[in-house]
Write a structure and sequence with these properties.
Blueprint lengths: L4 E7 L7 H8 L5 E4 L8 E5 L2 E5 L12 E4 L7 H13 L8 E4 L7 H10 L10 H10 L1 E2 L2 E2 L4 H6 L1 H18 L8 H14 L3 E2 L4 H7 L3 E5 L26 H4 L7 E9 L2 E3 L11 H9 L8 H7 L2 H5 L4 H11 L12 E3 L1 E2 H11 L3 E5 L14 E10 L2 E3 L6 H6 L1 E8 L15 H14 L2 E6 L7 E3 L2
Helix pairs in contact: 2-7, 3-4, 3-6
The protein binds inosinic acid (IMP).
The site of inosinic acid has 19 residues, from helix 4.
Amino acid sequence: MPKGYSDVLIGLQYGDEGKAKVIDLLAKDYDIVARFNGGANAGHSIETDQGSISLNQVPSSIFQTHTLLYIGSGCVVNLEKLQKEVEKISAMKIEMKDRLFISDQAPVIQPHHILMDELMGGEIGTTKNGIGPAYSDKALRMEGKRLLTIKLGDLLDDPKTFFAQMKNNFIETLNKHDLPARDCELTLQHMQTALDFITPFVQRDTLWLQKKVAKGAKVLFEGAQSVMLDVTKGCVPFVTSSSTVAGAAYVGGDLSPNYHRKTIGVAKAIMSRVGFGPFASEFGGLESENYCMEEGGNSHNRDYEERTYDTTAYLQSENPFEVGIALRMLGREYGTVTRRPRRVGMLDLVQLTHAIRGNGVDLLFLTKCDLLQDFNKTKDGTIPLVTGYKLNDEKIDYVPGSNVSYRKVEPVVEKRDCFTLDTTITEWEKLPPPLLTLLTEIEKKAKCKFLGIGTGPQRDGFVLKG
Ligand code: IMP
């Protein structure tokens, strides 16, 4: 019989739900926090007394210093970025030695992956981290005699051969796309330095996590991106290239599924999405999608919006697109690094219920509930919610599997009373009655219990249900 156990925490919408803060909160009850998918495309921010820290590849429990941190074989590793991240964490006097472990089966992001993403990721609106090309090379394996994917362990065993292979892959990619010759020597040198730095963290025992849990360790798997961005279940092609759903933890996380205990889902009270793709509850629909994604999202970035719009006037607008702009500004819904605008939308209970059912979510955490108060300042002062979907005039209770159909969905919108939140409240029962009514409605509809809600950006800005 298993001695330890594992829980899986995933995002239930389109990413950026605030998973890192929930992990930071829950990690005290676990021994190991482990990533099972994605790479440097994830941006997990945590507010601290020393300011905000953004993590990309390292699991989000860095401040819970008793936890070990594991990057599983389902992730793709950017060596240089990982080195910088570890150095940034160490500069905060947080020790990573003997704490961070990386699977030697994780593929390395190569220079040609970044190049290909820069060339081809624009139509999707990728983060340009080479994620798609790295996962596709992993599936493709070889082209003729040329090895496309290189695992961290292979690189450690024979750096000379595999760095030469990377160079070759870069040259072949340039040739294939008729691009002028270009050197990647300097990048490879930086990668070699980063590899030397990362080497002590690489775990060569492929059963490392399995053995730890067999001896009693409690693991929390931390999903990156979110279920709507899953490469199979999401709105393909407007998705990331890894499996983001709960079950994927037991592939990319290097643990057998018999240790699974429960699944925790994180959703955001006002939704957001980055990149192109269907988003049924988006304020302003297609107009907002095109506006936010113009020039890859760079035209209307945070700085542009802050010097251009007045949130008070825009909240009062009859035009949902303008209300969306105001909500984005008030909710600071911009890429942490890129400052690109995130598309924002109403809480969609059909999508949320779909994600909860499809992933067997046991406990729900709804972040940023304090921001629902912004609806007090809109024209009718109520909270709009998507409570139903109609597709070709028929009611449906699921997210369509085809993008074309999802674009055709007509959301049914209902209004709920707004509230004023005293953010010093720490007890669930003391939350304002309209908010409690809303949370109960969500529990009933999604058939899932609340673990807690987010009530502010600070580290302790939450109320647990108890
Ligand atoms: P990629 O993962 O960089 O290939 O990007 C594919 C899609 O996933 C794009 O729409 C990205 O904006 C989105 N995406 C990737 N990572 C995140 C994330 O951490 N949060 C939100 N969206 C993401």
